[in-house]
């Protein structure tokens, strides 16, 4: 009877040694995937915060620079694209367009010294600047979470668990093409 029990114990130990790493890898992937989701939500929250600030900023500037209708239209269109973004790539492209439009708006502001001294405008720009910093940090946190998740997903033996349970690769948050270009503003039509 003892001889029959020995192979069962060996099989039980082998199964135990296979199940524990499988459970551990699965739980690690779930945790990292949740961190990616949380980081993505944090980006959304900060982008929404910026989107909520923009109408106040635009309305303040409109009173001083009403002839800059194209910039106001670009900002409104970019905000709409950002609100309608359905994935990280679309969101990054819309975010880049909105950032470019805001940069052009702030360049226009340079031509209106009385606007720059307006307390409401100064408060809004300080809030917007703080939000831009939060967005940058949220993007960095998201990319860190995605990198950790994708790395774990590709490592052995987690790659086997990832493919068995459908853990898909997550995209990094990347700026759209042309995002590093300085926006051009032409003041020659003024005056």
Automatic annotation (TrEMBL):
Pfam families noted in UniProt: LemA (PF04011)
Keywords linked to the UniProt accession: Membrane, Transmembrane, Transmembrane helix
InterPro entries in UniProt: LemA-like_dom_sf, MamQ_LemA
Mode of membrane association: Single-pass membrane protein
Subcellular compartments: Membrane
Family to which the UniProt record says this protein belongs: Belongs to the LemA family.
Record protein name field: LemA family protein
């Amino acid at each position: 009877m003892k001889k029959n029990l020995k192979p069962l114990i060996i099989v039980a130990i082998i199964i135990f040694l296979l199940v524990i790493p499988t459970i551990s890898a699965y739980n690690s992937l779930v945790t990292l995937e949740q961190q990616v989701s949380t980081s993505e939500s944090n980006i959304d929250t900060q982008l929404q915060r910026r989107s909520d600030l923009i109408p106040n900023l635009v309305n303040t500037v409109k009173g001083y620079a009403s002839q800059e209708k194209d910039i106001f239209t670009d900002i409104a269109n970019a905000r709409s694209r950002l609100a309608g973004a359905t994935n990280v790539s679309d969101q990054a492209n819309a975010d880049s367009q909105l950032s470019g439009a805001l940069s052009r708006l702030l360049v226009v502001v340079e031509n209106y010294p009385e606007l720059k001294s307006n307390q409401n405008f100064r408060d809004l720009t300080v809030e917007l600047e703080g939000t831009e910093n939060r967005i940058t940090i949220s993007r960095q946190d998201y990319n860190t979470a995605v990198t950790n998740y994708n790395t774990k997903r590709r490592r052995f033996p987690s790659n086997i668990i990832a493919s068995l349970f459908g853990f898909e690769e997550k995209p990094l948050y990347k700026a759209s093409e042309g995002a590093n270009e300085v926006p051009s503003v032409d003041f020659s039509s003024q005056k």
